[in-house]
Amino acid sequence: MRLAKDISERLTALVEPVVSELGFELVDIVYRQENKGNILDITIDKEEGILVDDCALVSEKLSLLLDVEDLIQQKYYLEIGSPGIFRELKKEKEFLRSIGKRVKAEFSSPIKGQKKFVGILNGFDQGVVTISNEHHELEVDLDNMKGIRLFPEF
Question: N or C: which end of the chain has fewer CB within 10 A?
Answer without folding.
Answer: C
